[in-house]
Amino acid sequence: MIGTFLRLFGLLGLGFLLFGEVPAFAYPDMVRHGYTNCTSCHVSPTGGGTLTPYGRQLSREVLSTWAYEGEEKPAYFINSPDWLDLGGDYRSAYYYENTPKLEQGQYQFMQLDLEAAANYKAFTFDASAGYQDPAAPNTARDYLISRTHYVMYHATDQLALRFGRFFPAYGIQTPNHALLIRDTLNIHEPEPLGDGESYNLEGSYIGDTYNVLVTGIFGRPDDPSVQRDIGASVVVSRALGDSSKVGLSYLYGTNDLQKRNVIGPYGMLGFTQHFYLLTEMDFQALTLKTAPGYNPVEWGMAETSRLGYEIVQGLNFIIDQEFARTQFANPNTLEQRYGAGIWWFPRPHLEASLEYQQRQNKGMGYSDFYDYIYFLWHIYI
Prior knowledge:
The chain is mostly beta strands and 381 residues long. It has a single domain, classed as Porin (Beta Barrel). 9% of the residues lie in helices and 50% in strands. The chain is built from three helices and 17 strands. It has helices at residues 2-19, 53-63, 180-183, and strands at 84-98, 103-120, 123-131, 144-145, 149-154, 159-166, 198-206, 210-218, 230-240, 244-254, 258-272, 275-288, 297-312, 315-325, 334-344, 350-361, 366-380. A hairpin with a 5-residue loop joins strand 15 (334-344) and strand 16 (350-361).
């Protein structure tokens, strides 16, 4: 019964997206409004984390369905000085799945962080502190985490150098770590679900037309037991007109267990101010180090596409399609997802999304597609 209902919901969302005739809106990266660079709204050159005052203003004027003057301020009422940007995030989700082997629903805590960025002359100091839910805590300290902390030097308005802990630049910097391009390739997966952010040295050129980011990746010297990649990444992108951007990413990483090369194109295409496509495809060549004398290269790939359409400001219908096969020679590594849903920003500081998907995961023994529904809520300070 519930499977029939969810399929109907998905078809209704698909039909509305394809045939609706009302205004629309896209998220993330605001590319269809001409904001092709993350630094328009964020302190970080790769986006995410602390918002700039201009980014907060856009969250009220463009992103949200309703808002009153000043609602976008940190914690709704804080008037921070010009040299200080404050922020923070709480994310959690509930998912339901009905597979051939089980039916279950589960709450998932994702993030609870405070973050601040202090600016002094040409320098920016950014750090976060938060709570995590470790699988096997030993002490009270295991519940605390600083996912991000770095110092950044702005040589010019376009050139910057930063060092610290953050995700290396790669592809579309989306907060959705459950995407197959993130999950199956272990790129940008936060703790404790993945290896988390690494320590990096990043040089960035953020121009009006071209962006170039080069990152030296130093893994996790604070915790050698985490087999985090050591290597480098390069991202080159170009704005196409005022509302689209395409790029190419490359990552080389090695640790005690494996070495790999990952490369792939991505695009953020704003067809109108109301209609957009985010798409990324990554190819990986992986060599395991755990079999001395026999180290074949495992070739694989993952890709994702999201088509978005806004019906009123802040309320979006979306269609997702994902595919991954991390080993071309092994058909059991195949995963596929097709979904439709809504993404809503009712007011500044608030975000919610609800999506239904049909999923296939041969690695889990699910050759047939099964029902999956996902509800996420996000509060940003």
